[in-house]
């Protein structure tokens, strides 16, 4: 089911307003696109393993310009895919009905004369050649039926190594070691942010302006708490250095067959869907389905170095609170202690300076590019 906040856009303000301006600055400065990009916070891979990287491919992105990296969706892409493909079926009886009883009897008699028997993948072209001579009026429909039968069988066989508690993990887009190698050749760039001049208009983005912000000044802080509101309403500036920036594709591994999944999306009829289907087409691909969109790729950096300044006036108590929670990670990347070094200092009468430097060897996942499921499958906008 879609999350509650997907229902409608809300009027930006406070931390959300600041976040929208930050989102636009990141997209513009790093040559990303608001038609697809989603910020992820906190911005790091946990754990630093293949599974830690592949979890991003498993995520079903929420409809928000900002997503909490700790808030994993209950549904996983692999599980939804396997549930759909595992139940698809094209009964022999349907093939027989499409080509007619007499043609079916003649076709099966012909097959019995062949040694060795052709594979399921060979049958579609073999039937087309045979039927163009013996039953030309059903040559195309029969060939299409056999092709779908072969496609379903092949896709279901590809899932077998991943089934059950001892199945191998579903891989996406290469290994963690390959990502590290790629980051060594990524782009190094820098940009500045100014909350007074940055645009906060995100109405033209892929969410239509929906941006659900769950954190305040520090990771886990309520966006509306006093320290966060003072920060969001102040003049916030940032100087950002990004090294080793790459776009990392989250291409599903050999367990995935794009053709059969596109067929299942485009054709909700029986066959290929069973009757009853569990899950049904609507439960997966419908308006309130479990798979409205996927994370197609990530924007990953080798490291980041950001200095944030605010002219907010904080009391000694507020300063002590911020310093206490700083190890959890501070805006805008919320990198916790161990993943980054964060320092915070205050002026004698006003102002705060935050510097966050990511730890060497810790990839920083700035966000990802989201695609509607129909666009991902190449059969529509989704």
Q: What would you note in describing this structure?
A:
The chain has 382 residues and is an alpha+beta fold. It folds into two domains: 14-76 and 172-302 and 363-377, no CATH class; 85-162. It contains 13 helices and nine strands. β1 (37-41), α2 (50-58) and β2 (66-68) form a beta-alpha-beta unit. α4 (92-99) packs across α5 (101-112), α4 packs antiparallel against α7 and α6 packs antiparallel against α7.
Q: What keyword list fits this structure?
A:
382 residues; alpha+beta; nine-stranded mixed beta sheet; 13 helices; 9 strands; disordered N terminus
The biggest sheet, with number of strands, parallel, antiparallel or mixed sense and barrel status, is: 9 strands, mixed
Average pLDDT, rounded to a whole number, is 94
Q: Write down the overall geometry.
A: elongated
Distance between the termini: 16 Å
Number of domains: 2
SSE order in H/E notation? HEHEHHHHHHEHEHHEEHEEEH
Helix count from the secondary structure assignment:
13
The multimeric state of the shown protein is single chain
Radius of gyration: 26 Å
Strand content: 15-25%
What's the helical proportion of residues?
A: 25-40%
| Number of beta-strand segments | 9
Structural class: alpha+beta
Low-confidence stretches: 1-11
Structure in a nutshell:
It is built from 13 helices and 9 strands. It is α+β, with helices and mostly antiparallel strands and 382 residues long.
């Amino acid at each position: 089911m879609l999350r509650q906040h997907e229902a409608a856009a809300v009027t930006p303000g406070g931390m959300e307003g600041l976040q929208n301006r930050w989102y636009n600055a990141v997209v513009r400065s790093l040559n990303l696109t608001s038609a697809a990009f989603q910020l992820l916070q906190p911005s790091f891979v946990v754990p630093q393993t293949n599974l830690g990287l592949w979890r991003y491919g498993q995520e079903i992105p929420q409809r928000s310009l900002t997503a909490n990296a700790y808030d994993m969706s209950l549904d996983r892409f692999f599980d939804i895919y396997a549930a759909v493909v595992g139940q698809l079926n094209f009964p022999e009886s349907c093939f027989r009905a499409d080509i007619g009883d007499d043609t079916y009897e003649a076709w099966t008699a012909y097959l019995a004369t062949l040694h060795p028997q052709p594979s399921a993948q060979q049958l579609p072209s073999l039937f087309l050649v045979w039927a163009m001579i013996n039953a030309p009026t059903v040559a195309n429909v029969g060939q299409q039926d056999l092709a779908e039968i072969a496609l379903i069988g092949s896709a279901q066989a590809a899932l077998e190594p991943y089934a059950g508690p001892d199945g191998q993990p579903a891989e996406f887009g290469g290994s963690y070691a390959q990502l590290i190698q790629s980051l060594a050749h990524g782009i190094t760039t820098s940009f500045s942010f100014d909350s007074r001049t940055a645009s906060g208009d995100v109405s033209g983005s892929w969410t239509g302006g929906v941006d659900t912000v769950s954190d305040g000044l520090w990771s886990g802080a309520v966006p509306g708490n006093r320290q966060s509101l003072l920060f969001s309403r102040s003049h916030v500036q940032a100087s950002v250095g990004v090294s080793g920036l790459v776009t990392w594709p989250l291409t599903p591994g050999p367990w995935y067959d794009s053709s059969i999944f596109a067929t299942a999306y485009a054709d909700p009829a029986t066959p290929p869907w069973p009757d009853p289907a569990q899950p049904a087409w609507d439960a997966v691909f419908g308006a309130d389905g479990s798979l409205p969109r996927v994370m197609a790729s990530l924007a990953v950096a080798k490291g980041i170095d950001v200095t944030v300044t605010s002219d907010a006036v904080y009391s000694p108590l507020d300063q002590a609170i911020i310093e206490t929670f700083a190890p959890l990670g501070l805006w805008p990347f919320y990198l916790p202690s161990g993943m980054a070094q964060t320092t915070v200092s205050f002026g004698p009468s006003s102002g705060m300076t935050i510097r966050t430097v990511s730890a060497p060897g810790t990839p920083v996942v700035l966000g990802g590019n989201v695609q509607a499921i129909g666009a991902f499958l190449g059969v529509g906008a989704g």
